[in-house]
Amino acid sequence: MIRLDHVSKTYEAGVQALDDISLHIAPGEFVFIMGDSGSGKSTLIKLLQKELNPTRGKIMINGKDISKLKQKQVPDFRRKVGVVFQDFRLLQDRNVYENVAFAMRVIEAPRREIKKRVPYVLSLVGLAAKYRSFPRQLSGGEQQRVAIARALVNRPKIILADEPTGNLDGGNAREIMKLLEEINERGTTVVVVTHNTEIVRAMNKRVIIIDRGNVASDQGGE
Amino acid sequence: MRISSLFYNLKQGLLNIWHNKMFSLASLATMTACIFLFGVFYSISVNFDAMVHNAEEGVAVTVYFDEDVTTSQMQEIGDMIAIRPEVSKYKFISADEAWETFKKEYFGDEHSEAADSFSGDNPLQYMANYEIYLEDVSQQKSLVDWLKSLDGVREVHQSEAVANTLTDFNSLIRFISGGIIIILIGVAVFLISNTVTVGISVRREEIAIMKLIGARDGFVRAPFIVEGIVIGLVGSVIPLALLFFLYKKIITYVAERFNALEGMFAFIPVTEVFRILVPVSLVLGVGIGYLGSKITLRRHLRV
Fold this sequence. Notes:
- The structure holds two protein chains of two kinds.
- Chain A is an alpha/beta fold.
- Chain A has helices spanning 41-48, 74-78, 96-105, 111-124, 140-152, 170-185, 197-203; strands at 2-10, 16-25, 30-34, 56-61, 64-65, 81-84, 158-162, 189-193, 206-211, 214-219.
- Chain A is built from seven helices and ten strands.
- A six-stranded mixed beta sheet of chain A has the order 6-7-8-3-9-10, with helices on both faces.
- Chain B has two domains: 3-55 and 164-300, no CATH class; 60-158, Alpha-Beta Plaits, CATH 3.30.70.
- Chain B has eleven helices and four strands.
- Chain B starts with a helix and ends with a helix.
- The interface between A and B is medium-sized, with 24 and 19 residues.
């Protein structure tokens, strides 16, 4: 599913964020990526979204070397990878339904499909009753649920979540993790970048620790 | 692009204009001024062209022959004149016809006796000539030079001042209007570009999300292209409607106020002016709008 072969990333200023990393994430796995600020974990997520290209090495996702994708092939690749951010990144002028439908509209899904799929995904994340609410009317946990619904709505094979509980209290954080676990149980590969050691310990999943651009440890949870 | 996506982007483009009212209005006003001036200058220019053409029909070049030129040589010269592309028509005036016309003009019917005193002699016996009318007055000089170079041609008369003044004046109008329109097009493109830039910065977060969830470049850009095109389109429809009503009013006013003009030429009807003006203005408006958006998207929206 995801394979990194000797991947390095050096920014233009000369800062080396990742140094010769190799790792493999199998289809259907749930993986935590941990590390201190500046360890290179955000760079890793950006590489997996093809927001950045590696300086060296190969990143294979679903059997394709994504660093070799042409610019016009990038949208198709990104449709197979759902992303969730720490700050939710919802459109404040649109309600819950529209925020989720937006993800389908931009990939030009048929209207009929949107009308069918969005309520279903909202019920999966437990927000079917709040489909007309605006982000400002929701709690942090609910906003993150909307963001997860948006990431999920186009049936991605992988979900990349960058600090999804970073802005949430303990209870909401646990609920979001539970939701991601349920999504994973349905067959979606989930990669979560987090600082939250308590949650990581409680979930008992594979944990990859990045330190100064290197894989410091890689331990399977189960 | 799907029909539903087309409507979605159209709606987003219109929303961009609405959210960005002040800049959109400034762009629209400049566009309206630009197309309005273009329409005004175009209307003046086509009417002036008609005036010049009208005048051209009355401007003739007259060719006189050497005394020893025979009728058949005159015929040969006539044949050569006939095939010149700048000649619209030509007429042979024999010496007798020239004398008859002269008699009528100078002696009139009352003094025909004075003319009769010339009895059988034609004082204008060497004044047989060709009267040549041109398609385009600006070609007059080259025709005259060519005529002067012919064997057997004694003299060529032309009304240089009238022809050149009309042609020069029309060129001046076109030059000034061209300059003003180019400046206004520049300003319109600049303002539309600014409007779209503001739209992009307002929607920066939305664009970033769109890109991350797999929107194609065309889909991200479409609302901004719609924004530019709508401003361009509305900015050309408003001045066209204004011009339509003003044109009718102005030609009626001018015709009433300056009666002398009426005898000289007729204004071109509004429908005829608009047959060219409408498609050209719409293409110009939409083109400027598209260009303004496209330049900005290339500069600010690398998707």
